[in-house]
From TrEMBL:
Superkingdom, taxonomy of origin: Bacteria
Name used for this protein in its record: Spermidine/putrescine ABC transporter ATP-binding protein
Organism: Cellulomonas aerilata
Signal peptide per UniProt: none
Topology versus the membrane: Peripheral membrane protein
GO molecular function, one term: ATP hydrolysis activity
Limits of the ABC transporter domain: 1-220
Keywords: Antibiotic resistance, ATP-binding, Cell membrane, Membrane, Nucleotide-binding, Translocase, Transport
Matches recorded under Pfam families: ABC_tran (PF00005)
Any one Gene Ontology BP term: response to antibiotic
CDD domains (UniProt xref): ABC_DR_subfamily_A
Length: 311
């Protein structure tokens, strides 16, 4: 548990990260995920509960954990006057068995800005340097905060490949990210946090399956009156209920106008639902010019769990 000004920002949250696996911690801004990770890193002290990292209390055993844990912070926490390769060599010298600095610098492209001071680096360049510093000591556990934020596609792919190698080497990777495709591609297990608690967790495939892994989309004139559509798709004739932002729901189905003229049906999708949609369109003189049935994404599940409105 962690409180700020008497308000619990982390409250009864359980998080376990396994060795040789990538655990992605997802949540809206203010959900409590960063505070949770900072308590695990020893940067903040919890007000209650039990925190153990590699079996040790990070608040009292920080010296023992420091050689075994890598930390990549979003703001980097880097000395602004240093040059990247000098800094990487300096940090590597603190470890008994660091990785090869030259090879690590080459794969993350640090050589292209090796003589530039940290203060003059772009956001993506700082991220690459911060990642190199987090893994150069061969950690058993590494915390990565938005590891590919601000990177171009080539650098992002290099980061993903490196994370995959860490997993293969038996490292426990805890990853926080707002990029759902990053979590979907890298994570063995996803933990969704909101209001200081875990609201869903499991493998990506399990989360998609638990929320029905198919989705139905169609395009038509914007601003359709959706009253009755959700009910016609199934749900035992439950009267439709209007929601915010063009959402109508009935029984197990809901219909969202996600952008003007683009509609998404959530809920169980099968041939009968597709037939019911076209029947409703014909009855209301609506001509859909694109209907697609596809696999749901982690982003759509995340929005269903945490809400679609801005906080």
């Amino acid at each position: 548990m962690k409180r700020y000004d008497g308000r619990a920002v982390v409250d009864g949250l359980d998080l376990v990260a396994e060795r040789g696996a990538v655990t992605a911690v997802l949540g809206p801004n203010g959900a409590g995920k960063t505070t949770t990770v900072e308590c695990c890193e020893g940067l903040r002290s919890p007000d209650g509960g039990r925190v153990r990292v590699l079996g040790l209390d990070p608040a009292t055993r920080a010296r023992d954990l420091r050689p075994r844990v890598g930390v990549m912070l979003q703001d980097g926490g880097l000395p602004t006057g240093a040059r990247p390769l000098e800094l990487l060599h300096h940090v590597a010298a603190m470890y008994a068995r660091p990785v090869d600095v030259a090879a690590l610098a080459e794969r993350l492209g640090l050589g292209s800005f090796a003589r530039t001071s940290v203060r003059r680096l772009s956001g993506g360049q700082r991220q690459r340097l911060a990642l190199a510093l987090a893994v150069v000591g061969r950690p058993e556990l590494v915390f990565l905060d938005e590891p590919s934020a601000g990177m171009d596609p080539q650098a992002r792919r290099a980061v993903w490949d490196l994370v995959g190698e860490l997993r293969a080497d038996g490292v426990a990777v805890v990853l926080t990210t707002h990029l759902m495709d990053e979590a979907e591609s890298l994570a063995d297990r996803v933990v969704v946090v909101d209001h200081g608690r875990v609201i869903a967790e499991g493998a990506v495939r399990e989360l998609l399956r638990s929320h029905d892994d198919r989705t139905l989309r169609f395009s038509a004139a914007p601003g359709l009156t959706l009253t009755g559509l959700a009910a016609s798709l199934g749900g035992g004739g439950v009267p439709p209920a209007s929601g915010a932002h063009g959402e109508h729901a009935a029984g197990e189905h809901a219909v969202h106008e996600v952008t003007p003229g683009d509609y998404v049906v959530t809920g169980h999708v099968d041939p009968h639902v597709l037939a019911a949609l076209t029947t409703w369109c014909a009855a209301h003189d609506v001509l859909p010019y694109a209907i697609t049935v596809g696999r749901r994404t982690l982003e759509s599940v995340f929005l269903d769990l945490t809400g679609r409105d801005l906080r």
